Description:
The chain is mainly alpha-helical. The chain has helices spanning 15-24, 33-65, 70-94, 98-101. 3% of the residues are buried.
Amino acid sequence: MCPDNQDPADGALPAAALAALARALPERIDADPAQVEQGLAKLVLTVVELLRKVLEHQAVRRMDGGTLSEAEIETLGLALLKLDERMGEIKKVFGLTDADLNIDLGPLGRLL
Length: 112
C-alpha cells in the first residue's frame, strides 16, 4: 500500500499527482465562444493522452512481466497505434500540437 492508502496496482493516480494536476489547470475558464470548442478539445485530448501514457506503461510492464500472450501484445500494440493516429487527426482538426497538450504537472514534471 502507498502512504495515501492506495494500492499502486489499481491504476489510480496518487493524491500528489492529482494535486499537481489541479495546480496546473487554470483557476478560471475562458468562456469566449470562439475558443470554447478548441479549449474543450485541448482538455479532452490532454486527458486521453495521459490515459494513453498510463496504458502504454502498463502494457510495457505486463510485457516485461511475461503476462501477455503474443496475440495480446499484437492486439494491444494495434489499439495503441490506432489511438495515436486518431489523436493526430483530431489535433489537426482543432489546430493543436503535442506542445499544446504538454501541461505542467508540478513536481511530476511535464506530461509529455
